[in-house]
Structures are given as structure tokens and as C-alpha cells.
Design brief:
The chain has about 90 residues and is mostly helical. The protein has one domain. It has 3 helices and no strands. Helix 1 crosses helix 3 and helix 2 packs antiparallel against helix 3. The protein is elongated, with a radius of gyration of 14 Å. The mean pLDDT is about 85.
């Protein structure tokens, strides 16, 4: 439940951003957003929660990247902009 709630909260920023971007640029922005979330979560929040440092690995990095890409793709599809992938 905690991860689901955080995912919903983290989705508010890129939802507004992806609406103004097109196709692959939106996906790249989503991937970048996922990488920034990784940095904030596993390096910034480690000051408050030191046990987060154990999760700094390539699997967690990949999970954050996939989250950002999937979020951007879902935003494009729900906004009806999926035809822009072919351009």
C-alpha cells in the first residue's frame, strides 16, 4: 500500500508535463523522471531513512526507470497521443 500510494503521488508531476510533450520526447522525459526519483529516494531520503542505502542496486534503478517510462506511455495513451510514436 505504501508503494502504491507513493506511485500515485509521484505521478502528479509527469502527468501535467507529458501532456505538453510528444511521443519519444515524452518517453525520454518519463525515463529521466524515473531516474530522478531514484536519486531522490535512494540518496536524498537516505538521510532520513538510512536503511534505504541497502536498496541501491541496478534492480531498483531499473524499476524506477520502468516506472517513469510506463507512466509517460500511459499518459500518452490515455490522452490519445499514441499515434505520435510512429513519427
Amino acid at each position: 500500500m505504501i508503494h502504491f500510494a507513493l506511485s500515485v503521488l509521484y505521478a502528479f508531476v509527469p502527468v501535467a508535463m507529458v501532456g505538453h510533450l510528444r511521443g519519444w520526447v515524452a518517453l525520454a522525459a518519463g525515463g529521466f523522471y524515473g531516474l530522478m526519483l531514484y536519486m531522490v529516494n535512494l540518496y536524498g531520503l537516505t538521510m532520513l531513512f538510512p536503511w534505504f542505502s541497502v536498496a541501491r542496486d541496478w534492480i531498483t534503478l531499473l524499476a524506477h526507470l520502468v516506472f517513469g517510462l510506463t507512466l509517460a506511455a500511459a499518459c500518452l495513451l490515455l490522452a490519445g497521443k499514441s499515434d505520435r510514436f510512429s513519427r
